[in-house]
Predict the 3D structure of the following.
Amino acid sequence: MLRRIFSAICVGVFLAATLVAAETKPNIIFILTDDLGYGDPSCYGQTKFTTPTIDRLASEGMKFTQFYAGSTVCAPSRCSLMTGLHTGHCFVRGNKDVDGGNYPLAAEYVTVATLLKKAGYATGCFGKWGLGFHTNEGSPMKHGFDEFFGYYSQRDAHNYYPPFVHRNSEKIELDGKTYSHDLIEKEALDFIRKNKDKPFFCYLPVTIPHAAMQVPEQYVAPWRKVFPEFEDVIGKYSFNTEVRNPVAAFPGMINRLDESLKKILDLLKELNIDDDTIIIFSSDNGPHAEGGHRSDFFKSFGPLRGIKRDLYEGGIRVPTLVRWNKKIKPGSVSDHVGAFWDILPTFADIAGVPEAERPKQLDGLSFMPTLLGNSAEQKQHPYLYWEFHEQQGKVAARFGKWKAIRFNAMTKPDGLIEVYDLESDLGETTNIADKHPEIVAKFKEIFQEAHTPSAIFPGIK
């Protein structure tokens, strides 16, 4: 009799714990900036302007110093983020156009949103999708999102005053005078308000600060006085965009981005869900040099070498901050080596998704132990790997302190390999491949192991 009572009590406790866990699944907000460099936030060393709210994430959460994007350009980086696969395995491995838009993510791929929706989350994407249209299998609504607002095509997203955006499958005509980020911000805030009483995943892949250096004049005006020497410079990009003094426009754009982040934090507090929400802030690749942007002037790459389209650290190492009140130690700094393909398993852990419901093939490792301060339990990657399907092809890998880049990967099976010791040479200034043949041999093995052939993105040898 006592055994039955004890058993019933245990079952009751287990069910109660399960219900509590279900009721307290944290909301997840992922803010993905477009081409924000490792050195652009002031908490990562920027000195020409400040980013107070971005810095607040660092002071109230965890700052990662060795976190990497999925690629050095847009679409493959986002594919890696969504699917938990690096660019040697993921479906979209480059910026490839089809029917006037981005190559669509195949239907069979499970995404972060797919898993979270199945776990009971409301899911919304607001900004630039870049993995297909609503008319094909790459639609975000076919990959786990309940709603979408913004740009389907990254080409359209080069212009901040576009002729249209989309809400799900509906084309929203604009007057060409409306700043698209204002609309994207509003839709994201509305989504948070609407879903405040249940767990939600708000994916916010904003377009700032990519391509045309456009932002309303009220944000540029103060910086024209700071950088008057560039007032006669005209920054040009597609869609006949012209911006006077794009150097002044850049910090204005970052100010606008920082303002959006503050509105999100204020709203979470207003709705009393601040402690129930984890916020992740990152960038899809390194800084660009388009539309008149001077990444060299701002040292947007920080202490790193390279920018967007490079596989040097400046092209792929990105600022990454995570804030989770009462879970993450405020002001903590992590040197954990992670990458975008770790996001899916980490979010699955956060949402309590059973292992059986996760994709069987993943390159990512959850960094949940790092977030919770349990570094001893943190699994480490044997290596990280990237492919770039432009400029005759490049591949790169990192293990431990060693980093290697192979050039002409589409034209020469045994192309030039550069090797760097990131521990002593973070800026990748000295190629030491000739001094470490054993390390070169190890990287050659990794390059072969990490790459699987792709009929859609062929060429890497």
